[in-house]
Amino acid sequence: MTAVITAFESSPDKGRGLARDMRVRWALEEVGQPYDVRLVSFAEMKQPAHRALQPFGQIPTYEEGDLALFETGAIIFHIAERSAGLLPGDANERARAIMWMFAALNTVEPPVVELEQAGYLAEDKPWLEELQTILEGRARARLSELSNSLGGAEWLEREFSAGDLMMVIVLRRAEGTGLVEEYPNLSAYVARAQARPAYRRAFAAQLAVFTDR
Predict the structure, then answer these.
(1) 91-196 belongs to which CATH class?
(2) What span, in angstroms and rounded, lies between the C-alpha atoms of 61 and 22?
(3) pTM above 0.70, yes or no
(4) Which of 111, 118, 125, 175 is the most exposed place for a label (fewest CB within 10 A)?
(5) How many CB atoms are located within 10 Å of the residue 144 CB?
(6) What pLDDT digit, counting tens, does each position of 56-95 carry?
(7) Which of 106-115, 139-148, 157-166 has the lowest mean pLDDT?
(8) For residue 41, what pLDDT is reported?
(9) Residues whose CB falls within 8 Å of the CB of residue 156, separated by 6 or more in sequence, listed in order
């Protein structure tokens, strides 16, 4: 049965591949799993029908048969578990790939998103500049640690995995800040992932939603 995911009918990122359905699209493309997309408006996201799938009124959701999931980490883990291409076969390597998924979501993403959102939430506050300096410092500390861990390797572990997929998407949230560019190995890491055919297909599919409107 073909999986169905939900995505923004009118994405706030204007098709830049930053909306969270991009993560799920990319994962599905990596494993070669066909999927359909149901577009929802902001109003529809808050209605009972959508909240029955996603109680917080967000996207994406994932439906396949009688299974309905929300939260991109859970969705991508489900996809990766069932299909080859996103988790290594070796048990220890598999565990480390999953570890990097958690690290991306729990350790790296929070300071990056806080910095991204500060300008929207406090744009008229006199203390915005001071806040941004603090948040930049927090994000920079995490990126420095990630850069040290990656070193000169191609991927976080021996081969590309769901951990890299999630980490690259998180790093893309820092676009426009100049922070990732401070670490040449992280910039190259993101570019390497974006060159993957599955990423390009997912990006084109999300961009098409915006350009078709």
Answers:
(1) mainly alpha
(2) 12
(3) yes
(4) 125
(5) 14
(6) 999 999 999 999 999 999 999 999 999 999 999 999 999 9
(7) 106-115
(8) 94
(9) 97, 100, 149, 150, 163, 164, 167
Buried b (16+ CB within 10 A) or exposed e, 87-103: bbeeeeebebbbebbeb
**For residues 149 and 161, what is the distance between their CA atoms, to the nearest angstrom?**
16
pLDDT mean across residues, the chain? 92
Please check whether the two domains, 3-85+198-211 and 91-196, share a CATH topology.
Answer: no
Q: Which fold has domain 3-85+198-211?
A: Glutaredoxin (3.40.30)
* Tokens encoding 84: 């080859």
The pair of three-digit structure tokens given for residue 25, joined into one six-digit string: 């699209």
Please give the residue that has the higher pLDDT: either 113 or 87.
87
Distance CA 122, CA 133 (A): 13
31 is written with which tokens?
Answer: 């494993």
Indicate the domain borders of the chain.
3-85+198-211, 91-196
Q: What distance in Å separates the CA atoms of residue 110 and residue 180, rounded to the nearest whole number?
A: 15
Give 53's contacts (C-beta < 8 A, 6+ positions apart): 6, 61, 63, 68, 70
pLDDT per residue as tens digits for the range 161-195: 999 999 999 999 998 889 999 999 999 999 999 99
| Residue 134 Cα to chain centre, angstroms | 24
